[in-house]
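Reviewer 2 asked us to include a model.

Predict the structure of this chain.
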Amino acid sequence: MHVCGLILTFVLVQSSDRLQFFFIKNLDIRISDTTKVDVLRKCYEVTCSLREYVELHLQEFSASEALESFMNSSMVTCNADTNMRLDGAFTTNKASTMDELLEFVITRAAAKGEMRDNVLSLGYRRSQIRPAVMGSQTSGYENNMVAHVQSPVFEELHGMIGSDLMVHLLKDLSLFVKTGSCYLQVAGCPVNEVGLKQDTATKADGQNG
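Predicted model (C-alpha cells):
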C-alpha cells in the first residue's frame, strides 16, 4: 500500500480565504504503520494510543465500534515537561459543547499570544476572537482542523470522557488521527514547531555547557 513518505509533514497552503492542511500522498514509498509510530516516538518523549490515554483516566467506559477503532488508531503525544495524565480532580460530565470547548482552547492560545502553539488556533486573528460561541469566532483563514474535531466521532468521545479530559487532550497534548494511510495532526503544537523548539533548546544547552 502506498502511503505518505513524510507521515507527519503537512503542507500549509494559504490563499485569499482558506487555511488548508494537505498531506503529501503521492510519494512512491512504502512505510508500515509501525514505522509511522516510531517516527512519532522520535519527535515526542511520551506517546500512547488514544485508547491508552482514556484507560489512563477511566477504569470503565463504553464505546461504539467506530469509536473503539478511532481510539485504537489515534495517537496522543507530549514531551516530558507535560503530564499525559490530567493533574487533580476531574469529572466525566459533558459540561460544555464541542464548540464551546474549541472556543476556550483558541481563546486561551490568543490570550497567551501563542496562536501558533496549537494547530486548532492557526488562522485565527487574536484581535477578532470574542468570548462567545464558536460561531462568533472570526478566522482570518478557514482552519479545517476545527471542522475535523467537530465530527461525530469526537462528539461521542466527548460524551464518554467529559469536558475536563477533552480540554486537556486538545489544549495540552498533541493528537494525531489516522486518515487513510496517513496520520493527521488535529490538536497540539505543530510537529514542525516541536522540532524547532527542541533544536533551540539543544543549542541553548550547548552554549551554557
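Residues 31-133+141-203 form one domain. Confidence is low (pLDDT under 50) at residues 1-30, 130-137, 199-206. We have added this to the supplementary material.
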